[in-house]
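pinging the channel bc i need a second pair of eyes. not urgent but kinda urgent?? the chain im working w is below, pasted from the shared doc
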Amino acid sequence: MSVEIFNMENYNRVVVEEMENFKVIECQKDTSVAPENATREYFMGQMHVRRRQIVIELDDDHSAILQSGAMQWIVGDVEATTGIKGVGDFFGKKLKGSLTNETTIKPEYKGNGVIVLEPTYKYIILQDIGDWSKDGGMVMEDGMFLACDGDIENKVAMRKNLSSAALGNEGLFNLYLKGDGVAALESNVPQDELIEVYLEDDVLKLDGNFAICWSKSLNFTVERSSKSLAGSAMNGEGLLNVYRGTGRVLLSPVALTDCLYHATHNGPAGPGAPRHEGR
């Protein structure tokens, strides 16, 4: 039994990034639109707001864990499992999902075949989690996880103190990935606009919510920009997000709360329209 897939890639559907068994396919021009949406879709394409999809090839050495609801179609001898090993594991995953705003069950797909994920207008970033694991793994902002290799562990990272959550406008818990393999993340900004900072027993201070991923080994706190309240008020900075230790931080050029991605939330209507919201 064998399967061949034709026209997955062509002059319009182009592979823009590839890492191991993960591919990112981007539509250069979105022509699957209604006449009333054509003008808007044209200008969206000019600004690189385009449909993107992940294609994952599975074999005996590679399985895949997906965000719930992300799968569009599968071909080949592929089976889906919940990844839950018992009642205790289910309640553990349910608690983890409630803490991180992630889905309780992330299905795992095993076998030999191909999985194609739902299209999205967000940018898709592929990361080698093995590079992050030497510093404890990669912690990410809520809603970024899309898929990863089945060998990667999905865990919960807790802030080291309550001030980082309460004062930094952050949640107390975040999803983090650890292990060897590829992870696909959904981002509001493209990879080539992200800035990577590597700290070696040093400090990074941010005047806003610019960090989208960081090493678990880093100690994240929220601190006044000056030692005194009066000094903070005078310099106009107030509170800073501070990362200390050794590890990496991926920075967005704009604060996550200021991102203009919401402009595309009223995109193409109708069946098969890409997802516009992060889960």
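so The chain has a mean pLDDT of 81. and The radius of gyration is 20 Å. — does that match what u expected or am i reading it wrong
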